[in-house]
Each structure stands twice: as C-alpha cells, then as structure tokens.
C-alpha cells in the first residue's frame, strides 16, 4: 500500500464567495478588509504613543486606501496585459478586484501618494506616519495572502516537497504538459511567513535602536523587497519582463534600493531622537483637545452674538428732518453733486 504524498490542499473554489440575500461576498475582498482594519488599529496605537491625536490615522487611511487599491489594480493590469486585453475579453474585468490580481507594489505607490497629501493636510510628517504603519502593513499583507489561497493563485514551480500545493490542472496559470496531480510551491504561504517574520524583525530593531525619522519604513522596504524578489522568481504565472526580470522582481529591487538610500540618508540627517510625529514637534494632549473644544464653543457663541445684533431703528436712521419735509443735509446737495461729477 502506497501512502499518498503529503500536500496542502486548496479550498474548494465554491468557498471563494458566498451569498447573503441579494449580496455576494468575496472571501478575498473580506480578508483584505480584515487586514486593513488590523493595520489601522495597530497604527493608531503607535501614532498615539508618538504624540499624535487619537484616531487622526483615519483621516490619513481613507485616501491611502482608496489610492492604494487603485494603484494595486492598475499596476497588476499593466504588468499582466495578456490577462485582460485579448480578443473577446470582457473589459469590465479590469476592475474586478474580487477575482484577485492586486499588486502590493502598485498599492504602495498609490497609497504613498494618498498618505503624503493627507499627512501634509494634518501637519504630520509623512515618514513618521510611514514608520508607525510599517509593522501593521506587513501584518496586513500576511493576512491578505490567505485570500490568494482561496482564489487558487500565487503558486510557484512544481515540487515534490511535503508542503506542495494542490492546484487543479484546469487553472489557467498551470503550465501545459504537466501530469495530473502535480504539486506546486505555495508561494503565497512563503510570503505570508516572510511577512510575519518581518514584523518581528522590525519590532526587535525598533526596541534595540529606537528607529524613527523614516528608518523603520526603510527597513520594511528592504525586508519585503528582498523576500519578494526571491519568492517572485519561482512563480509560474505570466508576467511582463523588465530588463530581463519579471516586472514584480524589478519592482521589488527598486524597493530595496529606495530602502537602503532612505535608511542611509535619514541616519546621517537625524541624529536626535524623534519626539513627535507632527511637523512642528508638538505633542497632542488632552489639554489641547479641551482647548479645541473651547475654541469651537467660543466661535459658535460669537456667531450667535453677531446674528442677534440690534438692527437700527428706521426713524433714527432716517435722513429726513422730523420737524419739516426738507431732508437733512439738503443745503449741501449742490456741493455733493459737483463732487460726484468730478470723480466720475
């Protein structure tokens, strides 16, 4: 009797979505939302500990998420054009993010743009926010990779390792000519574990060296970029090639370079400890909140007072002489008319 080789089964494709009444929920999208919420809550705690107003992160997260999702989808579509632009293709699938295909590199580009302008508006240093976000972002990415498992995507070369991933031969990403029952590297799982390890590394380095001023997000870029380069290199799905590298390998390499340069520059530029995430260096306190509340009350009171100012009496404001029919100042009329004519 031959024992079947150990493997990681893929969930039934029917599990990728479910219906509640008239609504259809896609597990991939729900998992991404869970990751976002976890990252936001953790980032808020880290921001408050660094002197930020509680939940100011919401004002930053909203544009970050919107532009991040847009960037993620556009980057994926542009680096996998053959999946969306061919004869008979349904054009609307370009926007079907629930089917998978959201590139983290594109999300980082779009999200960074949204976060930068939101931070400028709130008076928060962008790199300080990015530092607070870094471990939560890696954790959210790890959670999000579970969505790839439900979608039967992000797998690598064939393997006979015990943790090989079972994928249906009908999957469009499976290379032709492979025998039935072929197992594949679970690259989604590799990245999930790499990201979780990265969270631990960042927290340890922060505790040891008190990294601020953009150095934590620099470590994130280096860590994630290196792991993504290795994991991406063994994937079997199609991708555009840039300078002889898969597009995502090239993008990950750029992340590493940016991270190294950012870490070196910020280390040399900032020797002093970072005391606040705000550009002016102030720290939010309960007293500041009370001051803002008092200013709001005073402004409202001033507005109410202005609206109830006494309106002048018509009789008192009249130019007519109450004792006669001649308007007051009538004797001056000729001179005023001449003056008016001169200024015309």
Automatic annotation (TrEMBL):
One of its GO terms (molecular function) is transferase activity. It is a multi-pass membrane protein. Its main location: membrane. It holds the Pfam family LGT. InterPro entries: Lgt (IPR001640). Keywords: Cell membrane, Membrane, Transferase, Transmembrane, Transmembrane helix. Residues 287-344 are annotated as: Disordered. Catalyzes the transfer of the diacylglyceryl group from phosphatidylglycerol to the sulfhydryl group of the N-terminal cysteine of a prolipoprotein, the first step in the formation of mature lipoproteins. This is Phosphatidylglycerol--prolipoprotein diacylglyceryl transferase. It comes from Gulosibacter molinativorax. The lineage of its organism: Bacteria, Bacillati, Actinomycetota, Actinomycetes, Micrococcales.
